[in-house]
From TrEMBL:
Domain (Guanylate cyclase) ranges: 485-615
InterPro entries (alphabetical): A/G_cyclase, Adenylyl/Guanylyl_Cyclase_3/4, CHASE2, Nucleotide_cyclase
Protein name per the record: Adenylate cyclase
EC number: 4.6.1.1
Keywords, comma-separated and alphabetical: Lyase, Membrane, Transmembrane, Transmembrane helix
Stretches that traverse the bilayer: 367-388, 395-414, 420-443
Top-level class of the enzyme under EC nomenclature: lyase
An MF annotation (GO) of this entry: adenylate cyclase activity
Length: 741
């Protein structure tokens, strides 16, 4: 080197001791978490495997020998609400029999007699000559349960039972069990009691299967048991029994640890597989199958109404296992799987059978935990050495590549071998070791160089006060235009109510009322603008963006009515109250409004006034919640009904007001189609001055709305009575002009 030439600074060699020590601490922490927080780690692993299944679901083929006869919304609309008469279910079973189905499986618990059967209906009638005449006329009628039992006996039928933790009840034995190896009972989910189907149905069915689910803690069904333990011994699940009956098999063979060909080195480790007819089904130690799901496939379903109408070709069911269940949301048999957030429970049974028949097994081998531990330790050690030998910015991509390698190996095992090898524990441990080792190395350098240590300290995260101080714009006056939803709520007749209370009692009463109302609004992501005595003003979509602001406001209004019921039940001795709620959506100005000395975060605009007017109009229409047109259009998942056209105070243009009937679940309580048709006909007659026709439709509204529109019908009837005697202008258009706010 030439004299006087600058010498290249050498990176100080870093002893790997501190980095390895830090990695060791992380490994110890990882093992401690594995022991003390197994559910948390399992949830993380489940998320990974769910992502695998969504990325590469099992392919569904129309050739698979499973079909679902679906009691769907269309079938309920055509044939009536559930439960159906069981002679109708018998007709479905007979159709499947005649079509040559291998088995027909009913995913319903028939634990009580059919209440729609003639003899059951007779028991509800008083002993009168008319009843005796009806009984005589029905003497030759066949009870529905007998018809259903007869159909079950003529088919390869399977019906459902439920196992319970409450002692009592027994289940008929439909199949035998042979155990090879150790006794698996200690590993199989145990139930103390059972709810069995009716004896007449159980005696005629070829199989009885339990419908108990064993979801994970997040309520996702990843594993489905093939066998459970009931009060009298082993109990097959519905899917297992369907597969057995379809093959005409009579016995289950349970292969447990230390059976012939099963090596457990003398340890008792539970079940390994269950033989069902020609199928050897690998299971976990508890007798459950890890299901490889396909995406929901419409071709898997056959609507029940088409079966009963004879519109399904026999070839569609021939040789197949036919599962009868429901996808109707109102019957609440909905589940979550790794592939779909919501599927009908009957589809889970179908997918289990398809999974077994297609042979695409998924398994978590006994050696997987050991392999994951070894990979975690080696990965942590590798990360520590890399950090010690390379600059941190160079070590990071190397260690990240190692973690990616773990994930790729796990993906390869899943896609090629059908194995669950958890990448979370080794990859997480390696990354944790990387960051811990990096922090340790950096900290050791900081101690040697005070100026670097001081610079590092400035990167600590600021607290909330610093965040506010760093953003002084939050403290300035001003606002912005935003699409928002407004809600006004007020107690009906509060002035009269408060006259009978002392000031202290009134204050306690108002505080007790406003607290649950506030909780409801805040839980639905609303912002409380202000309290005005007994009234509440709230808004959505500010200061935090809320794309579902109309839906959240509508849900809050319904929740407020539910909270009011609780409030009245608890404070009824003081006074029972009713409230009116107005909801409107539109462009408003929101921000810090006021003076330089004092301001509030609030909202102003024409649509704010409309929301207030709508709240006032609830007393005219006799409904608790009124909504404007924009809210009705934007609130997805909620049911509204147009009530009138109104020209509110301060506005020249008429607006359509609608009542909020409920969320999507209200369809199970009332016939929305008929209600809307009747209301539309009433409004058309009213606006056309056909008073008698309007009144006739009004008379139907209370029953069609399950009482929701009783006061509305009375109010409109009173208005029509006044209009009949009034001198209406030729251009009268039916718009209501309220005399007050």
């Amino acid at each position: 080197m030439a004299a006087g030439a600058p010498r290249r600074a050498r990176r100080p060699r870093q002893s790997p001791g501190l980095a390895i020590l830090a990695a060791g601490v992380i490994v110890a922490a990882a093992f401690l978490a594995r022991v003390t927080l197994p559910d948390t780690l399992t949830n993380l692993s489940n998320l990974v495997f769910d992502a695998y299944q969504r990325a590469l679901p099992r392919e569904w083929s129309p050739e698979l020998p499973v079909r679902i006869v679906d009691i769907d919304e269309a079938s309920l609309a055509r044939l009536g609400q559930w439960p159906w008469p069981r002679d109708r279910l018998a007709a479905i079973a007979e159709f499947a029999r005649d079509a040559g189905a291998a088995a027909i499986v009913f995913d319903f618990l028939f634990a009580e007699p059919d209440r729609t059967s003639p003899e059951e209906v007779l028991t509800t009638l008083a002993d009168t000559p008319a009843r005796r005449a009806l009984a005589k006329a029905l003497e030759l009628s066949v009870p529905h349960d007998i018809s259903f039992a007869s159909a079950l006996g003529e088919t390869g039928s399977v019906i459902a039972a439920a196992l319970t933790q409450k002692p009592g009840g027994t289940l008929p034995v439909k199949a035998g069990y042979a155990v090879a190896g150790d006794d698996p009972k200690p590993f199989i989910r145990r139930y103390a009691g059972a709810t069995a189907p009716l004896d007449v149905l159980a005696d005629n069915a070829r199989g009885i299967g339990a419908i108990n689910w064993l979801p994970d803690r997040d309520q996702v069904i990843r594993r489905v048991p093939m066998v459970l333990s009931g009060p009298d011994g082993f109990v097959p699940t519905l899917a297992a029994e369907a597969l057995r009956v379809a093959q005409g098999a009579s016995t289950y063979v349970l292969r447990a640890s230390n059976a012939s060909g099963e090596t457990a080195f003398g340890a008792t480790t539970g079940l390994n597989a269950i033989r069902i007819g020609a199928f050897e089904v690998p299971t976990d130690a508890n007798g459950a199958v890890v299901v490889r799901y396909s995406e929901p496939a419409p071709g898997r379903y056959v609507p029940a109404w088409k079966i009963l109408a004879g519109e399904v070709p026999a070839e569609e069911l021939k040789g197949r296992i036919v599962l009868v269940g429901t996808s109707a949301a109102g019957l609440f048999d909905l589940r979550a799987t790794p592939v779909a957030a919501v599927v009908p429970g009957i589809e889970v049974h179908a997918q289990v059978i398809e999974h077994i028949v297609s042979g695409g097994w998924l398994a978590r081998p006994d050696w997987a935990p050991g392999l994951e531990i070894v990979a975690a330790v080696l990965g942590a050690l590798f990360s520590a050495v890399v950090v010690a030998k390379l600059p941190v910015r160079g070590a990071l991509p190397v260690a990240l590549s190692l973690s990616a390698l773990f994930c790729l190996a796990s993906w390869f095992a899943f896609t090629r071998q059908g194995l669950f090898i958890d990448p979370v524990f080794p990859a997480g441990t390696a990354l944790g070791a990387l960051f811990a080792a990096s922090a340790t190395v950096i900290f050791s350098k900081e101690r040697a160089r005070r100026e670097i240590r001081n610079a590092f300290s400035r990167y600590l995260a600021p607290d909330l006060v610093d965040e506010v101080a760093a953003d002084p714009a939050r403290l300035k006056l001003g606002g912005e235009m935003r699409e928002m939803t407004l809600l006004f709520s007020d107690i009906r007749g509060f002035t009269t109510l408060s006259e009978g209370m002392e000031a202290e009692t009134l204050t306690r009463f108002l505080n007790a009322f406003l607290t649950p109302m506030t909780d409801v609004i805040l839980s639905r992501r609303g912002t409380i603008d202000k309290y005005m005595g007994d009234a509440v003003m709230a808004f959505w979509n500010a200061p935090v963006d809320d794309p579902d602001h109309a839906s959240n406001a509508s849900g809050a209004a319904l929740d407020m009515l539910a909270a009011l019921k609780t409030f009245n039940a608890e404070h009824g001795e003081t006074a029972k109250v009713a409230i009116g709620i107005g909801i409107n959506t539109g462009a408003c100005c929101v921000g810090n409004l006021g003076s330089e000395q004092r301001f509030d975060y609030s909202v102003i605009g024409d649509d704010v006034n409309v929301a207030s007017r709508l709240e006032g109009l609830t007393k005219f229409y006799g409904v608790p919640i009124l909504a404007g047109e924009a809210t009705v259009a934007a609130a997805k998942g909620y049911e509204f009904l147009e009530l009138d056209r109104v020209r509110v105070k301060g506005k020249k243009t008429a607006l359509t007001v609608s009542a909020l009937l409920g969320d999507a679940g209200v369809a199970a309580e009332i016939d929305l189609v008929r209600l809307r048709e009747t209301q539309a006909a009433m409004l058309a007659a009213y606006r056309g001055r056909a008073w008698d026709i309007a009144l006739s439709h009004l008379a139907d509204l209370p029953a069609l709305s399950a009482g929701r529109l009783t006061d509305y019908a009375a109010a409109m009837g009173y208005r029509i009575a006044r209009l009949r005697t009034a001198a209406l202008a030729d251009d009268w258009d039916g718009v209501f002009d309220p005399e007050s706010k």
